[in-house]
Amino acid sequence: MDKFWSGCGAIRKSVFEEIGGFNEQFARPSIEDIELGMRLKEARYPIGSLPHIQVQHTKRWTLRNLVNTDVFQRGIPWTRLMLRAGKVQNDLNVSRRQQICVFIAGLIVVALAVMTWFQPAIILAPIPFIALLQFTDRQANHHGIRRYTRWVAAATLLALTACCLVWQPLLALVLLGVVAVGAINHESLTFLMNAGGIPFVILCLPLHVIYYVYCGFSFAVGNLYHLFGIPFFKETQVEQEGQLAEWA
C-alpha cells in the first residue's frame, strides 16, 4: 500500500517527526496526507491497512462542495503531485479499473457532444437528471431523506431515462456507458445497496459517472498546470515572484 489517509490513519510520533511531518508548503490545504505517504514509502516505511477497524468520517457533504473538494483540493493537486514524482501508480483512486472508468466517462461526454452537434436539443438532456440529484441532495441534507422519498426519486430517475431513450434512441450509447461504469464498480454499488437499499444505489450510479467525468477534468487540468510550470508549493511561488520582481 502506497497511500496514507489522515481521515483514518495512525503513525508513530518518532517516524512522523523523522520525515518532517506534514508539508506546510501547499498553496491551500489539500493532499498533505497523501504527500506524507509518498515520503513514508520513499523512506522505506511500510503502510498497511486493517479492514476490521471501521471508522466513520463524519462530514456534511452537498453535491456542490463534494465536486469542489474532489476537483480543487484532491484531483488537481494529486495529479500534480504524481507528475512531480514522475509516476502514476496503479493503486486506489488511480488504479487501472478507475482509469478505465474515467475513459468510459470521457466517451460518454464525447458521445453527448457529437449527438448535440447533430441535434442541439440533446444538450438539455442532462438537466433534469442533475436537477433531480440536486433536489435529492438538498432533501437529504436539510430534512433527512426518507425511504419512500428514495423510491420516488429512483423511480423518477428511471422514468426520465426511459423518456430520453424514446426521444432519442442513440442515447442508449450513453446508458451503455453508465451500465459499464456500474459493472466495473459492482463492489462499491453492492456496499451502497446494503447500506441504503435498491433506490439508493440507483441514485448513486449517475453520481459515479459524474465523479469520473470530473476526475478526468481534474487530471487534464493538473497536466496543464504541470506543463506550464505553474508553482505547486508556496515556497516555489515566492521564489518565482521574487525573480519576477528582480527582472522588473
Alpha-carbon distance between the two ends = 47 Å
Order of helices and strands: HHHHHHHHHH
- Judged by helices, strands and strand pairing, the structural class is mainly alpha
Shape: globular
Could you describe the 3D structure shown?
With 248 residues, the chain is mainly α. The protein folds into two domains: 1-58, no CATH class; 66-247, no CATH class. It is 68% helix and 0% strand. It is built from ten helices and no strands. The protein is globular and about 60 Å long.
What topology does this entry show?
Layout: H1 13-18, H2 32-42, H3 63-85, H4 96-118, H5 126-142, H6 147-167, H7 172-184, H8 186-196, H9 198-227, H10 234-247
What tags apply to this protein structure?
globular, 10 helices, 248 residues, 0% strand, mainly alpha
